[in-house]
Write a structure and sequence with these properties.
Forms a complex with SecF. Part of the essential Sec protein translocation apparatus which comprises SecA, SecYEG and auxiliary proteins SecDF-YajC and YidC. It is built from 14 helices and 18 strands. By secondary structure, the protein is of the alpha+beta class.
Length: about 525
């Protein structure tokens, strides 16, 4: 227990010093000292409650998910029955009352149609997504199941949360908190962002990019009245584009969605000096885009973003390179913002801001000051008590305590974790746990001395027996910390992170380091020990 050869002492000090060096940029930042630009500068990120920032609560409407599922099902039904052998012909499809219904032209194909539709009804999951009924001999009615809709909403919110996270990360902000709240809400907290206007604009758009053929058979008078031909829909021109204030009829089905994009970049067209967004498709999307443009040469197609037409160019020749340019009266900033949205993916549902607040840095600074004062006073009292009670052993415990705090900061900086006010509470708790470990060790050594053991035996036994209790106590705290991290969110997870890191560092410093120091002192002056 008290054997520390030179290689072991060098290893322990090496680990401690490397982690402490990682804490120096954070200490400099918190102290207001400028850190040299040429040195590594990874710091502990400050949470919203410390650094200030923006808090936004986003909400989605489950009814939109249901409508999207119906539209997707309609297109799938049409293509599935059209590609069947022999082809199964159907009449007009209705999506009224939240369900899909249609009639077969040939009633003798009911069984064949049912067989073709089974994969669509059952889906790819473990639950049934649609209920199928056949009325009047040849009318099919597909009704969404409650379990299928619930799973679709949950999947849409999970996807929306990930898209929001990618968009915010693309802005270069640090350590945002993005979590789901309830069934259809997302909480977004961005430390250091005092003006949430750009953030709201970025998150408020779904960035649902589509390419649809223009219905050239639609009458201008009907379009102005909002009357769409069968199979088509009327869309408004996007503000700021050449089509602002105009209406365009586009084919509702048979287009291409932007979910196959692999890249998007805001650029400038060298011929017109116009700000445009260049997009790239993956092989599947590129093939579909090439097929669409090859089959519809000399026909216009609309480029649609969030149900608004950006432009409707004519297809002069097939576009087979897997890339395209989007124009629509962009500024350099709006083109770059759209590129971020397209790169991060389309939101599966519209998100509306239902709550917004900005937290100023003054509140966090005041909280830090009060927390530091409390920590400083508490630590000073602990140091005085330890030294007064245990003498040199108390000095060792105090030195281990300082190293412990620096190591926690260093590990948090290396892991790019966020420090919140509950995290500061975790610091205080860790200090208490480290001191408690030294108290257990020192009191155990005293007991062994009272029993008449020699100095070396008393210290060795004291560390060995107390360490068991320390490991048991820290194991239970570790389990609690893991559970808090797994099931908690936001500040609760911040507290758990500091707690878990502190458990490891406190054992490392309070047990291993103090034992190394005590062993070195005992070997140099064994007759001077008093505890």
């Amino acid at each position: 227990m008290l054997d520390f050869p030179l290689w072991k002492r060098i290893s322990l000090w090496g680990v401690a010093l490397l982690v402490i060096l990682a804490a120096l940029p954070s200490i400099a930042s918190l102290s207001g000292v400028r850190w040299p630009s040429g040195l590594p500068d990874r710091e502990v990120n400050l949470g919203l409650d410390i650094a200030g920032g923006s808090h936004i609560l986003l909400e989605a409407q489950p009814s939109q998910v249901a409508a999207q599922r119906l539209e997707t099902l309609e297109e799938s039904v049409r293509s599935t029955l059209r590609d069947a052998e022999p082809r199964i012909r159907i009449g007009d499809i209705s999506t009224a009352n939240g369900r899909l219904s249609f009639m077969l032209d040939d009633a003798s194909q009911v069984d064949a149609a049912r067989e073709e539709l089974l994969p669509l009804i059952n889906g790819s999951g473990l639950i049934r997504e649609w209920d199928l009924a056949v009325n009047d001999g040849n009318r099919f009615i597909l009704t969404p199941t409650a379990q299928g809709l619930e799973e679709a909403v949950s999947n849409a919110m999970d996807s929306a949360t990930e898209v929001v996270r990618r968009r915010i990360d693309a802005l270069g902000t640090r350590e945002p908190t993005i979590i789901r709240q309830g069934d259809n809400r997302i909480v977004v907290q961005v430390p250091g962002l005092e003006d949430p206007a750009a953030l709201k604009e970025l998150l408020g758009q779904t960035a649902n990019l589509e390419f649809k053929l223009v219905d050239t058979n639609a009458l201008p008078s009907d379009i102005e009245q909002g009357i769409a031909p069968p199979g088509s829909e009327i869309l408004e021109g996007a503000p700021g584009s050449d089509y602002e204030g105009r209406r365009i009829a586009v084919r509702r089905l048979g287009g291409i969605r932007g979910d196959t994009l692999t890249g998007a970049q805001g650029t400038v067209d060298p011929q017109t000096n116009e700000n445009v967004v260049t997009i790239q498709f993956d092989p599947t999307g590129g093939a579909r885009f090439a097929k669409l443009t090859s089959e519809n040469v000399n026909r216009p197609f609309a480029i649609i973003l969030d149900d608004e037409v950006l432009s409707a160019p004519n297809i002069n020749e097939p576009i087979i390179g897997g890339s395209a340019r989007i124009s629509g009266g962009f500024t350099a900033e709006s083109a770059n913002q759209l590129a971020i949205q397209l790169r991060s993916g389309a939101l599966p549902v519209d998100l509306s801001v239902v709550e917004e607040r900005t937290v100023g840095p003054d509140l966090g600074a005041d909280s830090i000051k009060r927390g530091m004062v409390a920590m400083g006073i508490g630590s000073l009292l602990v140091v005085v008590l330890m030294i007064a009670t245990y003498g040199r052993f108390g000095v060792y415990a105090t030195a281990a305590l300082v190293i412990n705090v620096l190591m926690i900061l260093g590990i948090m900086a290396l892991m790019s974790t966020t420090l919140t006010l509950p995290g500061i509470a975790g610091f205080v708790l860790t200090i208490g746990a480290a001191v408690d470990a030294n108290v257990l060790i020192n009191e155990r050594i005293r007991e062994e001395r009272k029993r008449g053991r020699r100095v070396f035996n008393a210290v060795e036994t004291g560390y060995r027996e107390a360490t068991r209790a320390i490991y048991d106590a820290n194991a239970t705290n570790f389990i609690a910390g893991v559970l808090l991290f797994a099931f908690g969110s936001g500040p609760v997870r911040g507290f758990a992170v500091v707690l878990i890191i502190g458990l490891f560092t406190s054992v490392f410093t309070a047990v291993t380091f103090t034992r190394m120091w005590v062993a070195g002192w005992l070997r140099s002056k064994p007759s001077e020990i008093h505890i």
